[in-house]
Amino acid sequence: MQLVRRLYDWVLHWAETPYGVPALFLLAFAESSFFPIPPDVLLITLCIALPAGAFRFALIASVGSVLGGVAGYGIGYSLWGVVDSYFFNYVPGFTEEVFARVQGLFSAYDFLTVFTAGFTPIPYKVITIGAGAFKINFPVFILASAVSRSLRFYLVGWLIYRYGPAIREFIEKYFNLLTIVFMVLLVGGVLVFKFVF
């Protein structure tokens, strides 16, 4: 936990440098395949510092995250047999049990699995690498990643653009709960649509 806290503080310090925007891109890229700290923490800080740039920051985070997801897919697709022990031993959120459950989810709900992980606090890196390792349809993976990551980061950007710094504490405190509620509503809406129409 101390290592994670140090990484969290290290991520935040980039907002106070001229390299905050490139750091956001690189963080979003890295978090999609191996880095434990989500880019939201730097995105929120940058948006508060410059609310007019909130949507540009959200775009940068989205593009970085989707490209990082492609890298994660590539790791799973090409290198999984070589690097699996590293991920199971050193990357938070990666366990053999979780990975086995992910395989079951992919076999039943490929788009929804990627979308849910991309939008919610579920470790996205487990899904990106799993998608490659289990060879799910690549266009489906890209579409689900692009939609979910963009929704997540643009929601954060819009909230700060609309409500300013006062929303930061609220987002940080309730982000996980908010994304879970949104997913429940989204899945409920899909089920209603499926059974009504």
TrEMBL record:
Keywords recorded for this protein, A-Z: Membrane, Transmembrane, Transmembrane helix
Membrane recorded as keyword: yes
Pfam family, any one: VTT_dom
Membrane-spanning parts: 7-29, 41-59, 66-88, 108-126, 138-161, 173-196
Domain VTT positions: 37-156
PANTHER family: ALKALINE PHOSPHATASE LIKE PROTEIN, DEDA FAMILY PROTEIN
Protein name per its UniProtKB record: Cytochrome b561
Organism encoding this protein: Desulfuromonas versatilis
